[in-house]
Amino acid sequence: MTSFLMYGSYQTEFQAIRVYRNELVPTYYDLKFNYIPLEKSEDVNHFRAMERLEYFFNFVLSDVIICTKDNGWINETFTKGGASLVSNSIMVIPTSITDEVLAQVLTSKAQVLANDALDIYRLELNVDGDNQGIIFEVDGSAHDLLPNMKDWMGERTYHPQPWWARRDGSVCDLTPDPDGEIGEPPQSFDMSFIDRSYDDMEPKDPEEVVEQKKVPHRSRKLKVISTDEG
82-93 burial, b for 16+ CB within 10 Å, e for fewer? Predict the structure, then answer.
């Protein structure tokens, strides 16, 4: 019997705002990655994985603000008590704001969002559509190239894994109050509604009552960044 390997590719674009010290730099990204469907995974899991990836890259990363953890200006300007003052997602990345690090965290995030159905093995990131951006090829797991949670946030954390290694929509990690108990994180980016929406499509017993669930829409309108309290 002749066997062959099926593979596919996903391509999208998003606009981001990179922060260098106190300077905001609008940046456009073209992103593409290749993937191989896992042989033991059912087709419905492939659809779920792609839906999670679509939601993350088209909704969460829409007009995302990208900064490093040591940028005190961004914390003073756009956050209060650990909560964001703007509707834009704020992505906090390790080390420095470079194409290489950004490609690493996005590859790791894509891998963990799709790890039950798709093997993502190559990600290409081009800046401003000039086709001169970094091409990042993954050999193994991308999060092995990044800090672990202890090195990233210390001993006291809300999660055991950094955001780029979690299967949710988060793009940053927050530090719990050192004097209080570690409860639920102030911001939650649960994406389980996608899995539930596919569960509702599976055949059910006629006597079961099916509850229709509403899911967030992926499109976003233009957002205005403002820190005015009035």
Answer: eeebbebbbbbb
